[in-house]
Amino acid sequence: MRYILSLITLVLLSVSSYAQTKVEIVSRIANTNVSGQLATQFINKLNESQSEYEFRFFTVPGSAGEGAYQRMLTLKNNIIVYGNQSFFSNPKTNTNNRVEQIHFLTSHTVSYAAFMVNPDNPANTIDEFVSQMKNGGFYAGSINSSGGGPVLTSIFLDKYKLEDKVKIVHYKNVPDRVRAVFIKEADFMINNPASANIAEKGTLKIIAMSSPTRQPDYPAVPTGAELGFPEFNFGAYTSFAVLKSEKELIAKIQLLFNKVCDDPEIKKHIVERRYVPVCINDETIKKMIADEKKMFIERGIDFDLD
Predict the structure, then answer these.
(1) Statement to judge: residues 58 and 104 lie in one domain
(2) Residue 213: exposure state from Cβ atoms within 10 A (0-12, 13-18, ≥19)
(3) HEC states along 75-95?
């Protein structure tokens, strides 16, 4: 009997010694969204690559990720936030300089915006589109209410002096934005073509990309710089971030995140979803956020966050 009890105790101790530490990865991004699906694949690879931690993905409601961020502040330990860098650079949400409280483990994807018009529109460049606007008529822009859309729209209107020709209509739902342009309720939209599912001919027409170089999925579409519009340049990065105070966790998982970010299978998934794979560290991300925040303030962009 003693032998059996000792054996049971030994088994229980063995099991407990191999118990995984659970780490929440929280986001406002649902796993049905493209970014959420890419996060899920990344997290699956994290779990496959080691046995000490079990990473779990949760969607937390809240304006622009505020719910996820507040959950991290409340729980403090073993919790990571996943989201877009605009959440940290936007002056409206970053009132307490929250980026200084954060350590970015990595940014693993970047997506660029496209200047899109109705497929029937004869314009093939931004200049041609603008010439239509300057010939008279009223134009509506269909944009999202956070991230690159407002920034690039502000840059576009400023460069071509079109503030009195364009009414900006905010749509919080991407399919609604696409539909508005497709049925000619709006005349253009600036959005990530991957999230807008602009992959098939006959949806919307892309006349410029906000990327530094032409994108493999849209090789015929010029960049803003090629069109003499170098200011039309903006990328949205998705990042995994943890509280800077979590020093022990960071020390243990930073190399793991670096390894998974550089994994060929992960990069393949990202490319397949029409995003661009990157691996960017904490220092670089914070520099990008500081530059972006400065741009928001200088342009007086006031977000109605979705």
Answers:
(1) yes
(2) exposed
(3) HCCCEEEEEECHHHHCCCCCC
Contact assessment for residue 123 and residue 221, using Cβ atoms and an 8 Å cutoff: no
pLDDT digits (tens, 9 = 90+) for 53-82: 999 998 887 655 667 777 877 877 899 989
Whether residues 205 and 119 share a domain: the answer is: yes
The residues, ordered by sequence, that sit 6+ positions from 157 with a Cβ below 8 Å of its Cβ are 163, 166
Give 300's DSSP letter.
T
Decide if 165 is inside a domain: yes
Residue type, 83: G
CA 146/CA 290 separation, integer angstroms: 16
Phi, psi of 121 (to 5 degrees): -70, 130
Query: Checking DSSP bridges between strand 21-27 and strand 79-84, what pairing results, if any?
Result: parallel
What domain range includes position 156? Answer: 114-209
| Total number of domains constituting the chain | 2
39 and 171, same domain (yes or no): no
pLDDT, residue 33, reads 80
Number of H helices, E strands in the chain: 10, 11
